Amino acid sequence: MSLLLEMKSITKEFPGVKALDNVSLTVETGEIHAICGENGAGKSTLMKVLSGVYPTGSYDGEIHFDGAHSTFKATSDSEAKGIIIIHQELALVPLLSVAENIFLGNERAKNGVMNWHETFDRTKGLLAKVGLSENPATLVDTLGVGKQQLVEIAKALSKDVRLLILDEPTAALSEADSTTLLDLMLELKRQGVTQIIISHKLNEIKRVADKITVIRDGASVSTLDLVQGEVSEDDIVRDMVGRDMSQRYPTRSPRAGDMLMEVSDWNVWHPDHGDRQVIEGAGFNVRAGEVVGIAGLMGAGRTELAMSLFGRSYGQKISGQIKIRGKDTVLKDVPAAIDAGLAYVTEDRKSLGLLLDDTIQRNTTLANLPKIATRGILDEGKEADIAEGYRKSLQIRTPSVQQIVGNLSGGNQQKVVLAKWLFTEPDVLILDEPTRGIDVGAKYEIYGLINDLSAHDKGVVMISSELPELLGMCDRIYVMNEGKIVGELSAQDASQERIMSMIVTN
Amino acid sequence: MTDKTAQPAQMDVKSYLAKHLREYGLLVALIAIMGFFQIMTDGTMLRAVNITNLFLQNSYIIIMALGMLVVIVAGHIDLSVGSVMGFVGALAAVLIVNWDMSVWTTIPICLVVGGLIGAAQGYWVAYWKIPSFIVTLAGMLVFRGMSLWLLEGQSVGPFPKEFQILSTGFVPDVFGIGRPNGTALAAGAIAISVILWLGLRGRARNRQYGVPDEPMAFFVIRNAIVMGALMFVAYKLSTFRGLPNVLISMALLTVVYAFITENTVIGRRIYALGGNEKAAKLSGTRTERLTFLAFVNMGVLAAFAGLIFAARLNTATPKAGFAVELDVIAAVFIGGASMSGGSGKIIGAVVGAFIMGVLNNGMSIMGIGIDYQQIIKGLVLLAAVIFDVYNKRKQS
Fold this sequence. Notes:
The structure holds two protein chains of two kinds. Chain A is an alpha/beta fold.
């Protein structure tokens, strides 16, 4: 077999972070090659290097495609060579028809006038190839996610695809849709289309892939051949997570006090698609002084669980029980949740956490304005004092609290969000990816802060995609997958392998 | 790690000016425009009678600009205010003139109706998330039609004296001097003392809490100009008929709204809502209710403006308030409010309304045709917004 793609020692640095470190990948013509790795391991960055999102020159290393040295300056260059990526978030225009979407940017037209006959005719042929019998005039909006995925593939096929890259193609699909998609991949392989699939789901990978390349912490760890030798899921999992605990975590002494919050039989449906259940019968609890982790992959429903608990900020048809300090409580909206002593530090601080154009001072007090006001009139002096206090105690590194939050570094922004929630004096803090996108030093400070909080008898629920972080910080870890809590592990019993295998086998 | 090396709280003059160019620019623009017309109209612009007229002519725009600023800061727009204003004026005329209702029952009824109209529109915007542009565009058509229906296409008037004084009355001279009017002079003196006191107190506070402050020279010059202008206006008014009643209501409302937007919990939450609705909501702000209230407030102010407008014309006409919403919205944007919500100041909106008012007034005195007037006003609005965007781009 001949090599179709060869990526040699790719290194890509962002300010302060080495996203890819000497990664190599070879893909042979006609195979299905899987790329595995944890969230943030560098899979997507590698694909962006390949497709020209990061233009040649912005990374080190070489790419050879089809025997030629490739220097892609934009995605249009790689597409012209037949490298097509189908991203996790589908790039279809919902209110255009299937046919219009397939030929978007590549319209069947003469002098700017659409040739609808050819458009529809060719669309029919392409849809047949991916096993769809939809009318080409159907609006994409009316199709389910599974079918939309297939339309994306049909779109790729319309462009003379040489290498088809599918980024987590089944993440949003149901069991049946996933099977259809995987069958299609095998069918395309028979027709000679080389494919790369990025996925966490080991059973799916084992079903379709010929080879697996595992990436960990920005480096390629191993390439396993599924056709030649026997590869067990355990082997793959070990390669995915098998690293020493290189980061240090501040030591904490676990101590579980009174029961603060108990959630049971929590059910949530998707806010826009009322037939899709996002959280199914989830239950967990947290005691005073405890740090409880929720592990799971992206899309497992962790954020959805947290936000639906926090004053029904996500989802619809929510049902289930919340007990706060043993008392049944209904948190009908965010003010009620705050009053009940709950705080939710969002994973998306820029769009959900901060007023980016406003000062540190005004962001700090936002969730508890009445505390700095008498009869509705703000005391800005008191406000400045309070913000200054948090700036010092959380070590927010800026000269004053009058700085605009949008100009701060990620770590400092995260501390401002934490300051805002600490000012509400919560009993239970739900921290959603509290260290995402911040540097190692700031991470350590945030870990220290979490330990401080638990030492002051707060309950902390920590959602994180970084397993070492959970293992280093938590007293107990719940494992979540596809909207369900699939397991609970104590700190002693938990290991990356056990968590991973709980996820992949459920 | 550190985002900026430590710097003194007192910024140097240049960087301060760069950051606040917009605010000073607005003041300078108003003065320049007034100066220009003072020369071009051979001194008519700043004559006592014309200054009095300026207030009478623009009071209803300014009053609605206060509410519009709140709506725009919250991230919305209200296109219906001109029609609502006309409708409420028509309602007042029908109640008072046709139904012989007393003025003092009519006024509260009209204000409540304004609030209900605001509520009816705000409900769809806030709780159904229908774009305010659409809802209020519909409102604009509906209430224009309802004014026509109510007045049956006729003008209704005149109003009794006690209704007219709402707009054309003057505060009597409490000192009994007559001319110059003692009340006007005293009010001017009190106003500048309060401004000076508030300014100095603010500076002291800023120093205490390390808030970067205006350089001293700027503080002195700006206040000298503002206080000089106020005293000048007070003096001019005193040599004519004294303080117009509308000036009092306008000034009071301006102070109240400036205070609410800058110093209260609800004011702060409106800015948060416009700045980042999702973040505000997740921080416990009842964003729907706040949006709803912003529209109710706008409705009440539009109703009040409608009463004042009807009282000044002494008749309600089906055309009252036609296209006024555009002047109001223009005033708010000239005053520096952001199109995407979250920023803008009451005082900016008021100055913006004055700039529009002075342009109207000056060009009319000069005898410039309505055609050119529209063109010039349009270009001024565009220039102000381009200036904003340019400034922002330069800073980032």
